[in-house]
Design brief:
5 helices; 6-stranded mixed sheet; alpha+beta; 189 residues; 23% helix; 14 strands
């Protein structure tokens, strides 16, 4: 994300601006931050996961969104664009530009966003009562980190690496890491 030098915007002003903007911006308490482009691995992984999950949730009442749908955190005055968002809450069908009740959020990591995705953004997402699972997917090697909210409300980490299946408990999905990383070429160290 790149900070912009705009004055404070209300959520309404942000949504109006965003609707006509050629670039996407995330919104944090009145300030907007331009989104940077993604690399081949990032886009391929996001597309692979979307394809795997779309067929899995078909007919369940859940909906999946990829990269262009905003997640709204009303209590913190935030709008983010997660790479993948799954909502099963019928209230989210009433809001075509944003989703407020995600069950699953996935971020595909990049050098420029990894610290934020692991830190402040994850802390912000944790305030969403509907969120059951937050997933971080590595683009440098085959590694998936699933943070799940347990019965006590604590976030518990389950990591998956190559040659394993990964599990998304929030939507009762299990898939092969190889399918998630299909056609991904890793950069040489």
């Amino acid at each position: 994300m790149i900070a912009s030098s705009q004055p404070y915007l209300t959520p309404k002003e942000y949504l109006q601006m965003e609707e006509h903007s050629p670039a996407k911006h995330e919104y944090i308490d009145g300030q907007i931050y331009a989104m940077v482009g993604a690399n081949d691995a990032h886009v391929t992984i996001s597309g692979n996961l979307f394809a795997l999950l779309r067929n899995h949730i078909r007919g369940t009442g859940c909906r999946i969104y990829i990269s262009d749908m905003k997640a709204r955190i009303e209590s913190l005055n935030r709008y983010y664009y997660p790479d993948i968002l799954v909502t099963c809450d019928p209230r989210d069908q009433e809001t075509p530009l944003e989703k407020r009740f995600p069950r699953l959020i996935v971020e595909v990591l990049s050098d420029s966003t990894e610290a934020f995705d692991r830190g402040d953004k994850f802390a912000d997402y944790q305030t969403l009562d509907s969120l059951q699972e937050y997933v971080l997917i590595n683009t440098k090697r085959q590694r998936v980190e699933c943070f799940r909210r347990n019965e006590a409300g604590l976030w518990v980490l389950q990591s998956y690496t190559d040659k394993q299946n990964f599990r998304l408990e929030s939507i009762n999905f299990e898939g092969a890491i190889a399918d998630l990383y299909e056609d991904v070429t890793f950069a040489s160290p």
